[in-house]
């Protein structure tokens, strides 16, 4: 199965020109998954062939037990490389394939999860980009859309969910029931879903919609706690998108299912699957609530961008992901309480995009994709947050009303079909009256980030714009803020609109104490202040009057840290100074995250403890405000260094969450009491407390603890994929550099097999477990060499090389 062929774009074009798929009837049998791992399916595909007598193939990366084409058996010799050859097609054909997938413990396509707290079994599917073929036979490409009728036989006490909702459920028989779901609208093969298990269910009628929330039984109380907020945001999102796109979501039922051992979330039409890490075990912070709303609205946006209108091929993945990433922030800012989400986006997602765009692995937002293996490597910070940032710039360029009008025309013309970049821009040009050919080429089909710099020529300022690698700059619509400083604050005197079309743009601006480039954060560019005002940004960022302006100042200094233009100490001073004055909930947590990231991974060994201690002191100051206490104490638990700080942490760590975080810090410092870890694991009501215990033990700075953790995390993959980034942070602690050196070799040895288990595991292992400490430039060279070896998947190769670029930047910063 591991040798399944990757579908090429040429093969997809040829098959789409030959076939029209009329429908899929999928019968799934889950009764064997209660005690074992066998996912059985019979796929009946009705399709037309435009050239009778021709041949093609159907995808099936499962064990084929029986197959017939138009009633005639298909021999086993026709099955190879995850494909079944089809010959002698007639004008109208019926293909029936019965298959069994036994590899259901890897999180790829079909997954069986067991809740260790109660032994309950849960099953989910997820198919993007081409894993539907692992569950059942199909023509697994996005432009062969068809209705799906899904029927599932499952253990009698299970609930089964799929896209169309409202199933007909049979009476129990032999310990099982059958759930027959109505036909879906025409869908691409990666969108159907089956979620099943003894799920806890909540439902709410909101307007015209019947909304459902589901989670495993052991998380029932936590889902109940947050259900009203989830229902409210779901209803608000459906209303907002339906009105703004002039196309209401057409199905009455909309379900969201939080499943164990899932990673992220997946936009299955009408039945979104989430990782149940989003069912927060403790009452969530403001930014955690905002993140959950962001994910909810991102997946919901896919009902339009991806499900109703789908890209034709993976070169237009941005039509799905860039738009969903933009739309979720746009809708949250306009339809929920999370009005500051774009500022959080600037601090988090956008900085990841800037860093990815600096790496040698960067690529255009829209690029040629040769096959589905290459497609998997483009689910990244370029396609997501850079794409969203570029769309935000496009909105500024053409105007929001015209942009939305163009989207409405796009949906009207292509609903339930497939579309391309050209289709979208034809509508946008039509409503805006602007020729967008140059904009499209420079922004979507060219990689890299423009540099915008304020320069003084005599008594006047000019904006200098340089494109990637010294090329002509892209067109930019932005604003420049003029700020007057008085005592310990700045006030905005004017915000001047500027349109950049050439290398130099003269500016007719009055004098100001601080001139802030890209005020309001409308464009995607690496910005630089006048050299004479850099110290003002570092020392007085927190005195700017708005959260966006403050964050723009801090992230400008962060960007300069990543390029070696300022020292880590300067950035930490800038961030902590801003934190002590910050008044916006959406900003405090991401600002703390950036400060800790700098202190832990970008600082020289000689100053790390001093910087972490300064962040810890900032946390103690913030914790005096009850609204900031939870966030501040969580960060204190990562940075407490002095005996006094550790003592205060011990006094204030009263919740299970904070107690685990304190134990992790003590473990890193070699001060943890194993008995205290065992006791908390028994006491914690979180059914996944065992994972917290694994991570505490992983943080211990001993060879034995690191070896045991490596076996559990990488070799055995005991921790769910959704927790692997947190696991990586626990394992690669900066203070344990000497102990960790041998594990860079272990990581290098594991790279060729990281793709086993599918796209999610490939990403979380290659990135989350990347050796960020205990390494030097020679290890970076070896990592890069390994990533380029034959047999390393495209996704893993790209992920490793991207992290190597970041590592080289960190090593330079650590040298001071």
Automatic annotation (TrEMBL):
Family listed: Belongs to the peptidase M1 family.
Pfam families, alphabetized: ERAP1_C, Peptidase_M1, Peptidase_M1_N
Keyword annotations from UniProtKB, A to Z: Aminopeptidase, Hydrolase, Metal-binding, Metalloprotease, Protease, Zinc
Reactions accelerated catalytically: Release of an N-terminal amino acid, Xaa-|-Yaa- from a peptide, amide or arylamide. Xaa is preferably Ala, but may be most amino acids including Pro (slow action). When a terminal hydrophobic residue is followed by a prolyl residue, the two may be released as an intact Xaa-Pro dipeptide
Gene Ontology CC terms, in alphabetical order: cytoplasm; extracellular space; membrane
GO molecular function, one term: zinc ion binding
One GO term (biological process): peptide catabolic process
Domain named Peptidase M1 membrane alanine aminopeptidase: residues: 233-443
NCBIfam families: pepN_strep_liv
Protein's name according to its UniProt entry: Aminopeptidase N
UniProt domain Aminopeptidase N-like N-terminal: residue ranges: 120-191
InterPro entries assigned: Aminopeptidase_N-like_N, Aminopeptidase_N-like_N_sf, ERAP1-like_C_dom, Pept_M1_aminopeptidase, Peptidase_M1, Peptidase_M1_aminopeptidases, Peptidase_M1_dom, Peptidase_M4/M1_CTD_sf
Necessary cofactors: Zn(2+)
EC annotation from Swiss-Prot or TrEMBL: 3.4.11.2
Domain ERAP1-like C-terminal: 514-808
Gene3D superfamilies found in the cross-reference section: Neutral Protease Domain 2 (1.10.390.10), tricorn interacting facor f3 domain (2.60.40.1730)
